[in-house]
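Q: A reviewer asked whether we had any structural model of the full assembly, not just the individual parts. We don't, so I'm hoping you can provide one. Inputs are below.
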Amino acid sequence: MDALGDYVWPRATSELILLPVTGLECVGDRLLAGEGPDVLVYSLDFGGHLRMMKRVQNLLGHYLIHGFRVRPEPNGDLDSEAMVAVFGSKGLRIVKISWGQSRFRELWRSGLWNMSDWIWDVRWLEGNVALALGHNSVLLYDPVVGCMLQDVPCTDRCTLSSACLIGDTWKELTVVAGAISNQLLVWYPAAALADNKPVAPDRRVSGHVGVIFSMSYLESKGLLATASEDRSVRIWKVGDLRVPGGRVQNIGHCFGHSARVWQVKLLENYLISAGEDCVCLVWSHEGEILQAFRGHQGRGIRALAAHEMQAWVITGGDDSGIRLWHLAGRGYPGLGVSALSFKSPSRPGTLKAVTLAGSWRLLTVTDTGALYLYDLEVKCWEKLLEDKHFQSYCLLEAAPGPEGLGLCAMANGEGCVKVVPINTPTAAVDHGLFAGKVHSLSWALRGYEELLLLASGPGGVMACLEISAALSGKAIFVTERCRYLLPPSKQRWHTCSAFVPPGDFLVCGDRRGSVLLFPSRPEVLKDPGVGGKAEAGSGPVGGDSGTDGSNAVAEWSPVSTLHSLHGKQGVTSVTCHAGYVYSTGRDGAYYQLLVRGGQLQPVLRQKTCRGMNWVAGLHMVPDGSMVILGFHANEFVVWSPRSHEKLHVVSCGGGHRSWAFSDTEAAMAFAYLKDGDVMLYQALGGCTRPHVILREGLHGREITCVKRVGAITLGPEFQVPCLEQPDFLEPGSEGPGLTDIVITCSEDTTVCVLALPTTTGSAHALTAVCNHISSVRAMAVWGLGTPGGSHSPQPGLTANIVSAGGRAEMHCFSIVVSPDSGTPSGLACHVMHLSSHRLDDYWDQQRNRHRMVKVDPETRYMSLAICEPDRPGVGPLVAAACSDGAVRLFVLQDSGRILQLFAETFHHERCVLKVHSFTHEAPNQQRRLFLCSAATDGSLAFWDLTTVLDHGSALLEPPAEPGLPYQLGTPCLTLQAHSCGINSLHTMPTREGHHLVASGSEDGSLHVFVLAVKAPELEEAVGEPELMPQLHVLEEYSVPCAHAAHVTGLKILSPTLMVSASIDQRLTFWRLGHGEPTFMNSTVYHVPDVADMDCWPVSPEFGHRCALGGQGLEVYNWYD
Amino acid sequence: MGRTSKDKRDVYYRLAKENGWRARSAFKLLQLDEEFHLFQGVTRAVDLCAAPGSWSQVLSQKIGGQGPGRVVAVDLQAMAPLPGVIQIQGDITQLSTAKEIIQHFEGCHADLVVCDGAPDVTGLHDVDEYMQAQLLLAALNIATHVLKPGGCFVAKIFRGRDVTLLYSQLRVFFSSVLCAKPRSSRNSSIEAFAVCRGYDPPEGFVADLTKPLLDHSYDSDFNQLDGPTRIIVPFVTCGDLSAYDSDRSYPLNLQDGSEYKYTPPTQPPISPPYQEACTLKKKGQLAKETHPQDCPISRVDALSQPLAAIQCHTVLGPEIKDNKMNCTP
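A: Here is a predicted structure for the entire assembly that you could use as a starting point for your response.
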């Protein structure tokens, strides 16, 4: 290391960590959360909310925090300061913190004490702490000085999976140890005759058939609870455990989790458990489930805390999210189902349909043609009218808007529609529309100005009725405005309708799954000034249906159609909100659509929760978020996409029966017909829940790829109030806020857009794209720009992204990130889906596929690279490394809207792990595109894409059959760089016109070489296709034991500096350019299983940033 | 995702089923042997953490067939019997187990100790890595009792943050320590195998199973946490390049022309810990939270209390009053 010279080599410091939350503890009204080696401190604010107060960095060095133990204060005053023992793995540190006057201060911290073994539990014994260690021994430790006072092992030195210390003095200290043999061992360290003399266990308790992961002891009731691998929680009556020889009785064996149970906590009246199934259950001590909190994503809940005074349960997830839930005992108050006792001798007939007019009036019709009103406040039935024309078949829909605008509509089998003012049913208006059955009925409301009723009749004709009220409010007028024609299908009727603001268009969904756009006033459209954009097909079509009586009326076709968007089961609702149209369908998805230039454009398909295949509707909650209504088997579910929480679950019997939903700020109501009666579910507080997301989770599974897209400079008006460390600003963090936009993708099938401000050291998830059906493994970015284009640039950023992963699936979408002061990050991100591709597309179209064995491999895309040819008319190429041994090239055209397979090669014959593209530019030479691919056998192949793109080149063999891709010929250079799989690859041009190529492998080795390109002179190349560039290796170096595990991240930062990251959790800098790469320095980071790394320079003041993605995300920075 | 899906993604899983191995890991031992000739001259072998028994299968085939060869398999869990393999259901941290092994070898020591055991991973990396290290150290501890000098020890390791501490520990007991990865082990997996040859305990070392071997800690001279000196042992890839690639997805009809036929797994797990929970789930007997509508539904006129607004932070009294609004009989 003497060669370092006077140059100061960079040293990376951690700036941001997003890891599973593994420790949580309530201290007074504060919450401590352990994330990696850092502690997040949350505090109650004046509004009664917990808010992030401060991040205390790097308390445990390279260890991760697994728990906190607050030193009990004799006077019980934890409101101003507290002494906290922080432990995890083999590390322990004590911090003294104060939070008087809503200001957080760290008063003192001890050294970081390293133990010889894993710490399972810590307990304060007056001034010292007792530690329960990994192989069933107990230490008495002075945490201030850092010295061991006593070390007592148990005679049975088995490996433990959990331990619990009980007692407040060394004399009464009791150890309950969860042994690998699934037993509980109870023993007393103070029984040791001399130091280091083993103590025999006092009791052994068997019961669980799996390892015990967590224990909790409730002294006041003499109960012990254990959580186990066998998916059960057991409650034991143990009495006072500090007394030897007591009887242990299993009083409860609770099965409720569908996976391993990680955590358990006993409270005075409850038992809380949480596990791998991401569910937190609240049990009574008798073993009955009272509440279930669902919402975390991924591999489960890792940490649990409770605040009995506030009735809070706080959970920390593997997704790095933290949530606060309210303990409410048995169910929520103000919520429940009641039968409305319709059946009575005075009300003959059976119920056919139900609807809700606002939140307090319910309407229903019977097969006798009678319309009844039920007032939810007065709680009594009232018959509004009876019309024998509406017997046996009757549709019923209440108008939208507050209290349904006091209107409802009925339709019958003879083509007649009746509009009924609820308060004056005698003023009902009948309107004959069709000669046959009215198939469907729906309303559309624009502000309070325009109210339309749409009715579908025979032959796909949809009549549009305009409803208006007389000034007196006593009478209503129904006039037919126009007729529309739906596209042909077997069940040719519409299912839903809405106005598209400002109101020129109506959007409708039909039974065939198509979403249609109609002009709301088609007669006006004929005027060329207004309807200039109307398609030729939108003109009036003569009454070709022939079935309706009024042939004179013209029928208008849709101006725009998204055919079968929701599949054969049909569209269930359309909603307009914030500039987008949302449609839901029975295909289990909802679409975000855009109306642009009189055309419907799909933006994004969104999935709902698992198992909800029948999405019935979408509803905007007063707080601005959105909830999804749907049916999950026989249950009606209100689900929040933001919190992934099922807000309401009603066992109604499924979506086929008549139902109605209404929601106001005060209450939410859901009515349905069951057993010949009307059932009503009501919930005070509407669709919201008092649960709080203290911190949003990121990805539920491992991050597989991380890419920086670009940066946005936000003016001072968008400055986010910085809650964290206002007094410790990093140098260079002043001035305009620079925010990096980073995308991550994960095994949880989503792609996430993140904003990482350079000033605050925080991360904001802007949006998530969940179009993939399998894990997403790779991404590539191209076409970076600013909103408004180069002519009128606006602040913000646009980019195109292509993502790929399992099941040979690839998606292409664009993002627009722009300033938005209304969001916590100061940014808003809009996503538009452009195109997708699947290799096995043909399989889905096969009719009898369930009976056949699918022979072709389930290819995974392992890595992507974008190659941008400079030739006009040729879109960028996407190179994909495939697990079936191929390197495939795709062509992107029409700025990403068309994605096609172009060529492939099976040169490697093994799983291809990495692809990387680079360009070679030299004076007097054509710019050349190269692709480098790397496989599991440690070989690299270089491909000359410029020659490949020259049609007629020998490098590209035409396909054997039309429709199949071209075959790439032989690579222009192959090289055996490693003995096994190559997990990272990067190149950089040198000043000499060569290329520096670096690769890192599974065996922990690095390989660096200089590649020289000898290209044919530009003039000669014309007409002589055999003149291909020659590649030579000039210098070649290998570092065999650079890391102890896979090198998964590698970047050449400059011709003299390289950084590598590995699964052994070291970020190492290497010096290049002087023969062999030399080790500079290395930093231990906290993200396990790092799969990808990206580095970029931010600014001269801020230096470089580096994002590491694996089981979490960590951002480092360093200065040059 | 059909049942053939795993066959396509993992060719060794499929080959193991087709060749009657209890797990795909059998190929790993075969490939390790290809490289290191582990079974040469071995007559007594111990398989620690043997279940489900694929390594024992390989050992019995390679050693047990040669007349005097003996294979002892040890596991905490019950394992379906295997011909030519002596089974001990016991704890490898107990001295009695070590004595029983020696007894089966008629007082002789073993030539080879292998351990392919791994804990059930929890997903928390530091815990999993620690547990795996403890398993390896427990295997090493019992190996010090049963292994003859010059003997060979092969054990699974996770190459995580602290793997260099394990290397330094193994180096104390063996003259040669290598890290090997068979080609049948996937690139994406952090597992590898420590191949330790020439058992040579330090002078004065007394094997003692009553005390666990604890892992080493970082050292500022020989094995630094973040410095340039770390004990990283040489890495060897085993198995030749013509072998199947474990990361590659293969079509169901492999190139040798044989027609694909679905084979069910050879040996399903014996009584896993989650068995009872699964049975209950199948029968629909897992405890469920009580939805309000599951309570007996009252007549609407019987509504006993007006709906009360939810309080933001209700103080939990000593006794919780359940809201019986809809639960009155």
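A: Points you may want to mention in the reply: Residues 945-949 of chain A form the longest helix (5 residues). The longest strand of chain A covers residues 703-714.
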